[in-house]
Write a structure and sequence with these properties.
220 residues, mainly alpha
């Protein structure tokens, strides 16, 4: 049996604040406090990556108690996922790509959607941090897979009436993710400074082939 709690009650005889719960004044600032925490987390992950960022560092940057970060977002994994989802939301709003465009235009639409995320300064940092972290951390890799599946691939597969739609979407994503790694992470030249519209025009037909083109011929 655990020993009795003999710590003094707060003035006025009211109940003690449970361990790990935010102060009433801090909680009352929602949603401003939540936004500040999310912004601090976004900057920390973008600058330091997943492994080197802690809840305590996020709380210090947001000027809140670490308990408040846990209260609103839970674990580091959850706040990392929230950062990526929030950053990608503007670029992935609206109906799925496959429902907005005819089949012959879905490759171009998907390519524009993908680069819209990378070219947006508010989105690029968290996604770049996620990609870098996913290479060396399995937890971050799982969040990255969930992000790509939920925010990108599902928006294409919903409009593809093909039995291998998921594989097709993943092949298309592989083409684009590989380009993103060379352009934004490794900064290969001349790819890193190539005109965006030129890249889209070159990549869209390849993406279109992955999504709707004929599959490999079946051996006789």
């Amino acid at each position: 049996m655990s020993p009795a709690d003999t710590s003094p009650a707060p003035p006025g005889g009211g109940p003690r604040r449970g361990r790990g719960r935010p102060r009433r004044a801090e909680a009352a600032e929602l949603p401003a406090t939540r936004d500040r925490i999310l912004a601090a987390a976004r900057e920390a992950f973008a600058e330091r990556g997943y492994d080197k960022t802690s809840i305590r560092e996020i709380a210090r940057a947001a000027e809140v108690n670490p308990a408040l970060v846990h209260h609103y977002y839970g674990t580091k994994e959850k706040i990392f996922a929230a950062v990526v989802a929030a950053a990608a939301a503007p670029a992935t709003a609206g109906p799925p790509v496959g429902q907005q465009y005819p089949p012959e235009e879905v490759g171009l639409a998907f390519t524009r959607l993908f680069f819209g995320i990378w070219e947006n300064p508010a989105t690029r940092g968290p996604v770049l941090a996620l990609l870098r972290s996913a290479v060396s951390n399995e937890t971050a890799a799982g969040i990255f897979r969930s992000f790509v599946s939920a925010q990108l691939l599902s928006r294409v597969t919903e409009g593809l009436d093909l039995p291998d739609a998921e594989l097709r979407a993943e092949l298309a994503a592989a083409q684009l993710v590989g380009t993103a790694v060379l352009r934004y992470v490794l900064c290969f030249e001349p790819l890193a400074k190539a005109d965006l519209e030129e890249l889209i025009k070159r990549l869209a037909p390849v993406v279109q082939h992955h999504l709707t083109g004929p599959g490999p011929s079946t051996p006789a």
